[in-house]
Amino acid sequence: MRKSKKSKKSKSWVIKQHRDQFYKRSKTLGYRSRSAFKLIELNKKFNFINKNTNFLDIGSCPGGWSQVASQIIDIGKMVSVDIKKMNEIKNVKFINADFLTNETKDKISLLFANRIDVIVSDMAANTTGNKNLDCIRTNMLCADVINFSTEFLKKEGVLVAKLFMGEDFIEVKKLAKKKFKRVDFFKPDSSRDESKETYIHCKSLKTL
How many CB atoms lie within 10 A of CB 141? Predict the structure, then answer.
């Protein structure tokens, strides 16, 4: 009996994961995803999370980035938001909702007495099989996060978000430069070599 393309792909993915050093290390260290190392690298590069940081993780499930933040932040407040359910992380308040709704925005405003120091997002759109379409949809999410962050970040606040090199990249870059004084791009070593993903680091809102 011939195996389906889907089952072959699934087997190939499992083999690749077990050969992946970051996947292995995530399991050893108890991280919920290998992407935890991406935030560790990003913070080492740009140094934006400390013990006092008020921190919002958008699209947080399964929780790898919130785990990393919770190991650094001691005094600051931590909130995670996702439409998918996420298991509890100590000292992290989780909102199971769409971050763009007014109801969710009201909840976030109530949780943070003042504006937020750092907003992060490792979100990617659900894959369709069409790489160009997936790229466009993920970059649209990044644009949504940029616009959202201008409502909640402190003047000297930081935004870090995933986007893909390809369709709409230049448009997202222009949007970020319109909203922030400093805009940088960085691809962590823990990103897969074949991945088109990169991360945008934005700091200090421009005065409108």
Answer: 22
CATH architecture of the region 35-205: 3-Layer(aba) Sandwich (3.40)
Say if residues 145 and 112 touch (Cβ distance below 8 Å).
no
The per-residue pLDDT for range 18-32, each reduced to its tens digit, is 447 766 776 667 677
pTM here is 0.87
- 95-134 per-residue burial string, b: 16 or more CB within 10 A, e: under 16: beeebeeeebeebbeeebeeebbbbbbbbbbeeeeeeeeb
**Residues involved in catalysis:** 162
Q: What is the pLDDT of residues 57-102, one digit of tens each?
A: 999 999 999 999 999 999 999 999 999 999 999 999 999 999 999 9
- Distance from C-alpha of 188 to C-alpha of 76, rounded to nearest angstrom: 26
Q: Containing H/E element for 82? A: strand 78-82
Instruction: Give bridge partners of residue 119 from the DSSP assignment.
Output: 56, 159
